[in-house]
Sequence to fold (70 residues):
Amino acid sequence: MIVIELTEAQKDLIHGEEYAPDSIFNCVQDINDNWVVSLEEMISLENTDYYWLYNLPMKVHEPKPYNFIP
Fold:
């Protein structure tokens, strides 16, 4: 999956904000604790206030390991 890399300050600006009707940004951390937002969210972006995100670096997402505890 391709993601957009964010600084912590950029994450604080967008996390939980509406990027399209009934859709909010869900920033997550990758395996290296970098904040990212998915390219899928960017493809659906309708709120012009966040078009600056298109200028940020893209990279392949390296998710954190998931420890499932039943």
Summary: Strands lie at 2-6, 18-20, 23-24, 28-29, 35-38, 58-60. The chain has one domain: 2-60. The chain has two helices and six strands. The longest strand covers residues 2-6.
